């Protein structure tokens, strides 16, 4: 099955001139299945993130309410107790924090969306038995297809890394790290001048990326 990925990317790399072979179809099928699986993982991660944010918000709100009493100015423990005793709202809030908020905070530790993420990654609930997940070799195959594609068609590097493939604009931009990876693969394939081009592009992109983060 692994060779399917490689073949798919290689054919992609050599152009769509070839008639679609059965193996290629299988790989497109794999690609579709993997993409569907990823979407499940993204949904699970979104749920997880929402849950975490809700938990953090609750804890933060609790800490802020606790700070209310102290917000009236620095005080010794005695003074704080006096404030609590002398202000029915403070006293009410104290009771509420202990009886209601603690319970919520204690209970929120019990809900765990992480399990959903792990299950989604394992393909639980979508018959993942048929999903052939790409492996490191497949990633390398995809990289090799890309560097060969760039080499064979002499694609414009500047345009390629900015998402323009065959004159079509896309959001598929490449990072400096991606270019380093491509450079390494070009080198391993003995494509030395191309490797240098990729490394140079990585250097340019690294400069741009640094400017963005500053
Ligand atoms: C590659 O594309 C860039 C941006 O469109 C352009 O400035 C540059 O001249 C092109 N390089 C070649 C060799 O065509």
TrEMBL record:
It comes from the Eukaryota. GO terms for cellular component: endoplasmic reticulum. InterPro entries: P4H_N, TPR-like_helical_dom_sf. Residues 27-166 form the Prolyl 4-hydroxylase N-terminal domain. Coiled coil: none annotated. Residues 1-22 form the signal peptide. One of its GO terms (molecular function) is procollagen-proline 4-dioxygenase activity. Keywords: Signal. This is Prolyl 4-hydroxylase N-terminal domain-containing protein. It comes from Cherax quadricarinatus (Australian red claw crayfish). The lineage of its organism: Eukaryota, Metazoa, Ecdysozoa, Arthropoda, Crustacea.
